[in-house]
Amino acid sequence: MADDGALTPFPGFKRGRIDDEIVNPELYASEEIHDVYTRLRREDPLHWTQPEGFRPFWSVTKQADILEIERQHPIFINSARTYLSPIAGEEWIKSMTGDTHLFRTLVDLDDPIHMKLRALTQGWFMPPNLRKLEERIAGLAKEHVDHMQSLGSECDFVKEVALWYPLRVINSILGIPRSDEKFIMKMTQEIFGPGDPDVAAESSNVSEDGASMTSDQGVDLLQTAQELFAYFGAITADRRANPKDDLASIIANGKIDGAPIGEREAMSYYIIVATAGHDTTSSTASGGLLQLMRQPDQLMKLKNDLSLLPNAVEEMIRWVTPVKHFMRTATKDYDLRGKTIRKGDGLALFYWSGNRDEEVFDQPFEFRVDRDVKKQVAFGHGVHLCLGMHLARMEIRALFAELLPRLKSIELAGEPKNTRANFVSGLKSLPVRFEFT
């Protein structure tokens, strides 16, 4: 069995035990989680972690170890455990589906089925095809910056721009009409932010029937899944009868080994594209703008030299790292850092920690638009490298390429707020005061 690996309590933390703090969503909302990551990288970078209410796991906090585990995908699999969830939540999902997953998305599956499903749409997300979408994406970026300008001198950048812009990009690619975008937004917030009371309130606000979340988040999540399955089931039926030049048609008519993909796999495919495909990009755009406001010298450097924009976007991605972790499970014993990971052990790959690794990045807690960020791990690595990473970069570049030349000034107009979540998180509010040229 894995070693105890106990560390002394962290003074001043709410519960004290580092094992509890690394899963504590409150710390992710305040970004105090970096105190935990930094200490683990220094004292115990491969830490056997036993939080109250969770199955134990190894906390992997160094970038080199994250990359090594990602490269060994036959040994460290996704399907047994995809993200950190309390035991009660895992048991509830198992009672509903018979396994550990509510959905069967690309991130929940292993090869060979993972790679066969991925191959169905991979061409859509590669640069040669995305170049065909540049004009459409630039147009959507302009539309949203125009909207921001129309609001006068103040707005909440998250709620007015960052949430809706990438949603409309991905909906456009999928072929989802704008009349359905509030539904997709509501579903995304319920999947990624059910533990955050403000996100739950926002979700109910955009709900067409006005329903709010119940106290039982598990029941709500099941209802969300059922609504999404019903919605995308109708999309599938339509695209099979009337195929179009959109991503939904590719999924609806996709085949593996000559047979149509399963209903659960198809529905999950839509869901991962439609939800994760925009939520993470919105977090990066808003988090990047926040850092530019906090560091006016970096903002001016970028405004004065937009050739730095591709690199600045990469630094934004490193800085925000919207997906904080993914889980892997060992299929055999494996030695790492002088410790033995046993068959069946879970591992949490903390990407946010890997992107602050002092051995990889000079002064990792400094935000630099001209930093060489080739080694950031926000998109993962290996066979599960993010399918939409090129699209995300293109969207963020297009937004800032439109926004920065038009801005005369921008500053905070209130306190930014982060979502309370330890899996996928980012800003939920960014009040700004601005002047356009």
UniProtKB/TrEMBL annotation:
| Name listed for the protein in its UniProt record | Cytochrome P450
What the record says about family reads: Belongs to the cytochrome P450 family.
Entry-linked InterPro entries? Cyt_P450, Cyt_P450_B, Cyt_P450_CS, Cyt_P450_sf
Polar residues bias: start-end ranges: 202-214
Q: Which residues lie within the region annotated Disordered?
A: 195-214
Keywords of the record, alphabetical order, are:
Heme, Iron, Metal-binding, Monooxygenase, Oxidoreductase
What is one GO biological process annotated to this record? cholesterol catabolic process
The domain of life for this entry's organism is: Bacteria
Q: Which organism is it from?
A: Hyphomonas polymorpha PS728
| Native organism taxonomy | Bacteria, Pseudomonadati, Pseudomonadota, Alphaproteobacteria, Hyphomonadales
Spell out the molecular function terms from Gene Ontology. cholest-4-en-3-one 26-monooxygenase activity; heme binding; iron ion binding; steroid hydroxylase activity
Q: Which residue stretches, if any, does this entry annotate as coiled coil?
A: none
What is the role of this chain? Answer: Cytochromes P450 are a group of heme-thiolate monooxygenases. They oxidize a variety of structurally unrelated compounds, including steroids, fatty acids, and xenobiotics.
